[in-house]
Amino acid sequence: MTRVLPRNPNVFANSPLDRASHRRADKEWLAAAFADKRSLFMPVWKLMPFLIKGREGKHEAGWITSELALALMRPGTTTIFLGINNDVAHFAIDVSSMPDPAADGALAGLGTFADLRTIAEEIDAGDAAILAQAKSVIDWHQRHGFCANCGNATVLADAGYKRVCEACNTEHFPRTDPVVIMLALNGDACLLGRQAKWPAGFYSALAGFVEPGETIEEAVAREILEESGVKIGEVLFHSTQPWPYPSSLMIGCYARALTTEIKLEQDELSDARWFTRNEIRDTLMKRGTPDLRLPPPLAIAHQLVKSWIEQAG
Ligand SMILES: [Zn+2]
Predict the structure, then answer these.
(1) What residues are neighbours of ligand 1 (ion), with CB under 5 Å?
(2) What confidence tier does 291 reach under pLDDT thresholds 50, 70, 90?
């Protein structure tokens, strides 16, 4: 598939896969792809992807062959068709029901399982996006074994993109939860907040779940008002980031502040403040010894503040 989308600045974005959703119900094609020696499988154990040591001691995604995948699988192993890249089908298998197969099993001595967040920036960016997809879908299957409509057991369908209740015929689909995350802007200053449990000096963009029946713009304005008391006018879109904990889509925005007075009325934030471009720039460039600490590049909040100071030249 030829990529035509502009590059997204966020980790877990820019997946190279063609999800080929028309293949999900094609059992014959799936069986052939599953048996194909070129196909790649990602074992996921307790929501952690399998990793191998690559060049310069860095982690790499531990894709395995169908032969090794079959050695790991048991009846009922959750198997997800992720998509196709360069004519190679990619699958994920959930091996959580067995003891760590990398410690003492089919994968012993080949690699390890590790939390995706800790290695996301180390591995290939395309693999990080694919592993986020795998983690979110497997997590959803683990938590949706029973029908929300009638309570009976559900079964996997469409190569992992659906669960069906055979008692009441309800179909259940993996969900994605939209979260707005934004910088309110007022001239040369942006609004950041902190929670009491965060490390000293650590501030980030305000954020919150979009509620049913709400637009993105309304959610941005409501969250900023609720958390800081600042009123918002125009809302501008920046970028989105899949965030597989377990299934959020972070929607990064800028919002024009109409007021500047901060009123902390909720318990959510312990502080919210306006920071100047210079303060943000000094912190990102690690100049001097700023008291401020900002989220790492993995977080879309980092990309929001970085783009904002870059826009100013
Ligand atoms: Zn049901």
Answers:
(1) 147, 149-150, 152, 165, 167-168, 170
(2) confident
The first and second tokens of residue 63, run together, are 């894709």
For ligand 1, the distance from its centroid to the CA atom of residue 144, given in whole angstroms, is: 11
> In terms of residues, how long is the chain?
313
Q: What gap in Å lies between CA 130 and CA 122, rounded to an integer?
A: 14
Q: Taking residues 256-269, what's their average pLDDT?
A: 91
**CA distance to 127, 137, 149, 163, 182, per residue, from 248 (Å):** 18, 12, 23, 20, 15
Per residue in 117-160, pLDDT (tens digit) is 999 999 999 999 999 999 999 999 999 999 999 999 999 999 99
**Position 214 pLDDT exceeds 60:** yes
- What is the per-residue pLDDT across 163-184, written as a single tens digit (0 to 9) for each? 999 999 999 999 999 999 999 9
Report the separation in Å between the CA atom of 153 and the middle of ligand 1, taken as the mean of its atom positions: 7
Dist CA 192 CA 301 (whole Å): 10
Comparing C-alpha atoms, which of 71, 108, 111 is closest to residue 93?
Answer: 71
Backbone angles phi, psi at 31, to 5 degrees: -65, -40
Give dist(CA 294, CA 154) in Å, integer.
43
Tokens coding 299: 């977080």
Distance 148 CA to ligand 1 centre (A): 7
- What's the CA-to-centroid distance between 164 and ligand 1, angstroms? 8
Instruction: Assign 133 to helix, strand or coil.
Output: helix
The DSSP string of 167-182 is TT--EE----EEEEEE
Contact 274, 193 (CB under 8 A): no
- Give CA–CA dist 282/125, Å, rounded: 27
In the reported structure, the alpha carbon of residue 173 is separated from the centroid of ligand 1 by a whole-number distance in angstroms of 13
Sorted by where each starts, the structural domains of the chain and their CATH numbers stand as: 21-143 (3.90.79), 144-174 (no CATH), 177-311 (3.90.79.10)
